[in-house]
Amino acid sequence: MKKWLSIAVIAILSVVLAACGSDAGANGGDGNKNNEITIGYFPNINHVAGMVAETKDLYSETLPDGTKVNYQYFPDGSSFMTAIETGDIQGGLVGPGPAMNHFTSGAEINVVAAGSTGGTVIMAREGAGINSPEDLKGKTFVSPRVGCTHDVQFETLMKEEFSLTSDRINGEMKHVTGKPATYSSLFETQNVDVATVPEPWASSIEAEGSGKVLIDTPEVAFGETLPAAVFVTSQELVEEDPEMVQNIVDAHKKATDFINENPEEAKQIAIDKIKDITDQELSKEVIDRAWERIDFTYDVNEEHLQEFADSSYDLEFLKEKPDLTGLVDKSFID
């Protein structure tokens, strides 16, 4: 598998993986009706439940006999949400930002569980002359997408605590986007000064020495309370086949319990799966460090999601004040 070297390559990778691993693209929204489902997730530590469920074949334990389970890997939340809305995947893990943004734009989706909390770190490039957040005026920062979970966390903190905003809203910080796996190289080429980074890529940057921790997880806005990943499915699937959704969520819960009960094995699964997807092999030291910044849980707090959505509106990522009523359905985890 080729390395993720560009957005184009990543997009091709997702398509190829989907084509090789399933007929989900051909079946579209009818995949689950043909005893076949596709689950999606990202190659981030916050999504380890997806890696464990795939490696341990946990969905096959909860779904009806004969159900074929496929997996599709995503580079960002926008492509994931599009796949949910088109029915190319039936469920999976995504950041809360894309889920809320699409819901408030009219997408008929449900958050049926959480995946993890924590794991966002603000990293500064070595040699950039940045010793505190006050030094970011006039600097360039990178996030995975405009308005993604990590972007909102960073911009909320900077606006509320340091009165600094991005050039998107006529502020003093320049904002660019890029894939977390490439942030270390962006630091090395001095293309960016700061990155808002999901694990394990923050710990990888630390280990490689191209960047240093500027703001650690507990100090990032919503750093330890906001679900860093949520499990999403379509409202149509919830209404038409709640038993299918329950089976899917049961497998996700099993994966989460496995992570908490068998952390060392789960770490190795993450190392192997991330290498398989991205062709980047992370060391045990990097994974150990990343693990310390994350809690794995399937419980989801609606109030925390609403607070985060309100902040997205305040930062002008959303055009209208959000009302997340109906987004979360906890009936499958209660």
Automatic annotation (TrEMBL):
> Per its record, what are the GO molecular function terms?
ATPase-coupled transmembrane transporter activity
InterPro entries named among the record's database cross-references: ABC_SsuA_sub-bd (IPR010067), NrtA/CpmA_ABC-bd_dom (IPR044527)
One Pfam assignment: NMT1_2
**What's this protein's name?**
Aliphatic sulfonates-binding protein
**Gene Ontology cellular component terms for the protein in this record:** periplasmic space; plasma membrane
The species is: Halobacillus karajensis
Q: Gene of origin? A: ssuA_2
Entry's localization field: Cell inner membrane; Periplasm
The record's comment on protein family reads:
Belongs to the bacterial solute-binding protein SsuA/TauA family.
